[in-house]
Amino acid sequence: MESSSAPSRPRARDLGVVIGSGTPGPRNAITDVPGVRVGHTTVRRPPDVHSGVTAVVPDPVGPRTPLPAGVFSGNGYGKLIGTTQLTELGALETPVLLTSTLSAFRVADALVGWMLRRPGCEEVRSLNPVVGECNDGFLSDIRARPVHEDHVRAALDSAAGGSVAEGCVGAGTGTVALGFKAGVGTASRTPEAGGRRRTVGVLVQANFGGTLRVLGRTLTPGSLGVVGADSAGPVADAGSCMIVVATDAPLDARQLTRVARRAVFALARTGAAYSHGSGDYAVAFATRPGGAPVADADLNPLFEAVLDAVEEAVLNSLLAAVTTTGLDGRTAPALPAESLVRALFDRPAPGAWTTGD
Question: Fewer CB near the terminus (10 Å): N or C of the chain?
Answer without folding.
Answer: C
